[in-house]
Automatic annotation (TrEMBL):
Domains (record comment): Domain I is involved in oligomerization and binding regulators, domain II is flexibile and of varying length in different bacteria, domain III forms the AAA+ region, while domain IV binds dsDNA.
Region (Domain I, interacts with DnaA modulators): 1-126
Locations listed in the record: Cytoplasm
Ranges of residues in domain AAA+ ATPase: 184-312
Source organism of this protein record: Parerythrobacter lacustris
Protein name: Chromosomal replication initiator protein DnaA
């Protein structure tokens, strides 16, 4: 019996240890969200999107104080190490005192791309044979790995892509490109802001086309990877083999084409490749975060090739699509219950991109499961402050006053009047409370916008509404309704 009890206690300790590790991972992710947001302000959108955003946070060694940061490729890991290591280390030391140094490396789950054997291009790239001679940009991953033999994520298919009015054009065009019959347009150019689904559609095209043509040769990579392979071939004196290999593919998928900007020799090679593949009726798909005409530094001839087919614009997901995406993601968490008001809150509040929306849902559910709490609106507001603040648009006190007056059906002048009737005072106090919650204004600044009232009056109003929200369900409902209106 003692052995059994000892085993049970050991299992509990292991289980508790796993929960602590999971909670630590959630906390590290939350810290990284804050750090990343700060770096975005310092570095600007383009540098942040290209080099900082792809970073994944690994584990923290308590003994050495070393935190691992992972990037998907050796090229990007070296670049970030050379240019941003000191800044990242300082930011983490400020955020978490136990971090003494930061180690930047390639993600262990993404093995280094194999050396290209360009001497033999006879074997079909996707025939299930030896993957040591896979196409440019292809990553051979083990059975427990992350992607298919050509680097396609098995989760990113047409079946898992949720459509709505804002992305239906891009989805239909992608499906047409992957269909058995020859498409009416080529190349297809998918234009979408970060996190709106263009990469998902690239992977889906690859999966669908490969399903219809099992022996087809597919090339999928980022523009960054294309440049790396091009430079390696140039240095090795293997440009003839490089060109021959590259132009032997049936489907060319290139992501983040905006990062080829300014590389004249790489642009020229891509131009000749496009011409060669189009002449043979091959299929080409490019994706970028801007329209072809907005690609600065691109040679005019290449720009015309990118624009000559169909440019499918994927707009930011509207609220209906955001709801559908959240509901589709919830199926993998069944039978976990997520209240409807939480889904509505996330859909209305996290509006910048789909990736953040799904990330917010995942973080909320992970925190609830690890702490044993129920998923609720209050928990969402408490735990997603970093994501919510990044998505919250700038709201003015004038807008708050106007919305509150419409909600309570009082005249706008009552916000500044001296009347003390309860029907006027309470809405005024609610507006003061919302002004403090939704704007960066100080108490004196808020007071001046409400008829020159003293800051102590604003403090009293804020504390009163906070207290009423705890005790009065009707007041809490009013405030929540107003928050949804103002943040939508």
């Amino acid at each position: 019996m003692a052995d059994k009890n000892g085993f049970a206690n050991s299992a509990k300790r292991k289980s508790g240890g796993n929960e602590m590790e999971d909670l630590e991972a959630v906390n590290l992710a939350a810290d990284w969200a804050d750090i990343s947001q700060g770096l975005r302000k310092d570095l600007g959108h383009q540098l942040h999107s290209q080099w900082i955003k792809p970073i994944q946070v690994g584990g923290l060694c308590r003994e050495t104080g070393t935190l691992d940061l992972y990037l998907p490729t050796e090229f990007s890991a070296n670049w970030v190490q050379d240019r941003f290591a000191d800044r990242l280390s300082l930011a983490w030391k400020i955020a978490r005192g136990e971090v003494r140094n930061v180690r930047i490396q390639v993600h262990p789950g993404r093995r280094k791309l194999p050396d290209i054997n360009l001497a033999d291009g006879r074997r079909p790239a996707n025939d299930g044979g030896d993957t040591s001679m896979i196409a440019i940009g292809a990553a051979h991953i083990s059975d427990a790995g992350f992607s298919s033999p050509i680097g396609l994520d098995p989760m990113l298919t047409f079946a898992s892509f949720v459509t709505g009015e804002t992305n239906v054009l891009g989805c239909n065009a992608a499906q047409r490109m992957a269909a058995t019959e020859q498409p009416q347009f080529s190349p297809l150019y998918l234009k979408a802001a970060t996190g709106q689904g263009k990469t998902h559609l690239l992977h889906a095209i690859g999966h669908s086309y490969l399903g219809a043509h099992p022996r087809a040769r597919i090339f999928y990579c980022s523009a960054e990877r294309f440049m790396v392979e091009f430079v390696q071939a140039l240095k090795a004196g293997q440009m003839i083999e490089f060109k021959s290999r590259l132009r032997s593919f049936d489907l060319l998928l290139v992501d983040d084409i905006q990062f080829i900007i300014g590389k004249a020799s790489a642009q020229e090679e891509l131009l000749y490749t496009i011409d060669a593949l189009l002449a043979e009726g091959k299929r080409l798909v490019f994706a970028a975060d801007r329209a072809p005409q907005a690609l600065d530094g691109v040679e005019p001839r290449l720009l015309s090739r990118l624009s000559m087919g169909l440019v499918a614009d994927i707009q930011a997901a509207d609220i209906e699509l955001r709801r559908k995406i959240l509901e589709s993601k919830l199926t993998k968490f069944a039978p976990l219950e997520v209240p409807e008001d939480v889904i509505e809150f996330l859909a209305r509040t996290i509006t910048r991109n789909v990736r953040e929306l799904v990330g917010g849902l995942n973080k909320l559910i992970a925190y609830a499961q690890l702490t044993g709490q129920e998923v609720s609106l209050g928990l969402a507001e408490d735990q997603l402050t970093d994501i919510l603040s990044a998505n919250r648009r700038r709201i003015t006190i004038d807008e708050i006053q106007r919305t509150v007056c419409q909600f309570y059906r009082i005249d706008r002048s009552e916000m500044s009047s001296k009347r003390r009737a309860r029907a006027v005072v309470r809405p005024r106090q609610v507006a003061m409370y919302l002004s403090k919650v939704l704007t960066p204004r100080s108490y004196p600044e808020i007071g001046r916008k409400f008829g020159g009232r003293d800051h102590s009056t604003v403090i009293h109003a804020v504390r009163l509404i906070e207290d009423l929200r705890q005790r009065d369900a009707d007041m809490d409902g009013d405030v929540r309704s107003l928050l949804r209106q103002l943040e939508s």
